[in-house]
Specification:
With 435 residues, the protein is an alpha+beta fold. The protein has helices at residues 10-21, 63-71, 76-79, 106-113, 119-130, 144-149, 155-170, 179-188, 206-209, 211-218, 254-261, 267-272, 325-328, 346-363, 418-434; strands at residues 3-6, 26-30, 41-44, 49-52, 58-59, 80-83, 86-88, 95-97, 199-202, 222-224, 230-232, 238-240, 243-245, 247-250, 279-289, 299-301, 314-317, 330-335, 372-385, 403-405. The protein starts with a strand and ends with a helix. InterPro entries: Amino_oxidase (IPR002937), FAD/NAD-bd_sf (IPR036188), SQase_HpnE (IPR017830), Zeta_carotene_desat/Oxidored (IPR050464).
């Protein structure tokens, strides 16, 4: 019998690919029109283009995702724009980059290659951060703000560097975010050296990275259907909406997993063992320009001031990373913890962000932003779980043989990032194969 994978996000598709490569028959159920989960494409009528529903970058440390791409004959060197760590603010006031020094001197390379770190005080703080990148030694109850304060973080560096990095990694403000998860991300990227911290930006959109190949591999094994119920089979195995399967991988959001698990015998005790997390939104304002901006920077840090309607935190200039001409005319601005702008006038929000870009680009001596032909705001309401201290996340195992969990919300050791989703899907598939 086949294996059922419920959910065609990055976790579910990764699991399905692993199972198919191992010779197992797979049926993938996906409720949404497009696969990809929170990293899917949408056709936006206001822009007249197909765009990603949000902007995601990969890191050189994302070994599982890069290996999965290669297994599907996708060359990361062609599919991704790769660059050494070089985070710059649009206004030119901050730069964080590696000087190419061999390990273990690579951490010194960050101190030498960066600017805007609040002088010697900021450099000493950054040196202490590099010396404290051991997640297992971080107090599990500490917030990111607590951890950084204990390392003598200057207030301006907290505002200009760590807060946007924390929101980018965890989509949770530093005052509330779990320090241990944040340190794990830093340790696997900044702490691991230049190769691990390389910034990888998709050239042709997220679906083209590898999900498109996965969907082609699955063919008719990918079905558009919201699963109503799962239940143990009368003679073993499982039934998914009445269809028999040898095993099931639930690769759906936490709330959907709870809905499907709740009717199973003994579910109450299992569900009590993990937290139903709160979620936060991520917004993306996309600008379609009359011509490519040609700023020369694929990714820039923005200084946000919501009180002045300057909501943007990260800017992606697709003229520096995309291949298709139509996409090279796009600029995406990411707004983390986007629940903050709920109820605000979208036109006013867009005008504020556009003014923010123009002012900070001028301060940083970037070319003027070309004429804007259209803009669109896309808000992913439940983009990520809130990565707070005390969050209890389940592993892949369940009390029911042949039923496993996958998803970035499970206990991957990472926050809600794409690499965590891929790793969880691969681990769940391996669990099925080992049974």
């Amino acid at each position: 019998m086949s294996i059922a994978v419920v959910g065609a996000g990055w976790a579910g598709l990764a699991a399905a690919v692993r199972l198919r490569r191992a010779g197992r028959a797979v049926r993938v159920y996906e409720a949404a029109t497009a696969p990809g989960g929170r990293a899917r494409w949408i056709d936006h009528p206001g822009l007249g283009l197909r765009i990603d529903n949000g902007q995601h970058i990969l890191l050189g440390a994302y070994s599982a995702t890069l290996a999965l791409m290669r297994s599907l004959d996708v060359d990361p060197a062609r599919a991704l724009l790769a660059g050494d760590l070089d985070l710059r603010s649009a206004d030119g006031g901050l730069r964080l980059r590696f000087w190419p020094l061999p390990a273990p001197l690579h951490r010194l390379g960050v101190l030498l290659g960066s600017r805007g770190l609040d002088g010697g005080r900021g450099r000493r703080h950054l040196a202490r951060v590099f010396g404290a990148l051991e997640p297992q030694r971080v107090d599990p109850c500490a917030t990111v703000a607590d951890w950084l304060a204990g390392l003598g973080c200057p207030p301006d560096l907290m505002t200009r560097l760590w807060e946007p990095l924390c929101v980018a990694a965890l989509n949770t403000p530093a005052r509330a975010a779990q320090a241990r998860l944040f340190v794990r991300v830093l340790a696997d990227s900044l702490g691991a050296g230049p190769a691990a911290s390389r910034i990888l930006i998709p050239r042709d959109g997220l679906h083209a990275l590898w999900p498109a190949r996965a969907c082609a591999l699955l063919g008719e094994g990918l079905r558009r259907q919201r699963v109503r119920a799962i239940a143990p089979g009368p003679a073993g195995g499982w039934r998914v909406d009445g269809e028999p399967h040898a095993g099931v991988i639930l690769a759906v959001p936490a709330a959907e997993a709870r809905r499907l698990l709740a009717p199973l015998p003994g579910a109450a005790d299992f569900l009590d063992g993990w937290t139903e997390p709160a979620h936060s939104a991520i917004g993306t304002l996309t600008l379609r320009l009359a011509r490519p901006w040609d700023s020369g920077r694929p990714m820039l840090l923005l200084r946000d001031e919501p009180a002045c309607d300057a909501w943007g935190q990260w800017l992606f200039d697709r003229s520096a990373s995309a291949r298709a001409h139509a996409e090279r005319r796009l600029v995406h601005v990411v707004i983390g913890t986007a629940d903050r702008y709920a109820g605000r006038d979208p036109a006013r929000l867009a005008a504020g962000v556009i003014a923010q870009i123009r002012a900070q680009a001028a301060a940083g001596s970037l070319p003027p932003l070309p004429q804007i032909e259209a803009h669109a705001l896309v808000t992913e309401r439940r983009a990520t779980f809130d990565a707070v201290p005390g969050l209890r996340r389940p592993g892949m195992a369940t009390p029911w043989p042949g039923l496993l969990l996958a998803g970035d919300w499970t206990d991957t050791g990472y926050p809600a990032v794409l690499e965590g989703a891929v790793r969880s899907g691969l681990a769940a598939a391996d669990g099925i194969l080992a049974a």
